[in-house]
From TrEMBL:
It comes from Planktothrix tepida PCC 9214. Keywords: DNA-directed RNA polymerase, Nucleotidyltransferase, Transcription, Transferase. One of its GO terms (cellular component) is DNA-directed RNA polymerase complex. This is DNA-directed RNA polymerase subunit omega. NCBIfam families: PRK00392.2-5. It catalyses: RNA(n) + a ribonucleoside 5'-triphosphate = RNA(n+1) + diphosphate. Transmembrane segments: none annotated.
Amino acid sequence: MQKRSTIDSIEITRRAADLVSAASNRYRITVQVANRAKRCRYEDFDNGDENTVKPVLRAIIEMSDELTQPEIISDR
């Protein structure tokens, strides 16, 4: 059985709330998170990586990092 890394659910909840509060449209940010998670899932499948973080959680973490640290993305 594979061991999963522990992710603080309170931290994920806070990050998701930050994303929703920063967005002008809750539906749109939800769809963006879902699309990012879908892309992460297919990237993991293509690369053969066994990532321990679920795609939705990974998408929330990445998007909240982009929100708080805009210098990590260069094209937006």
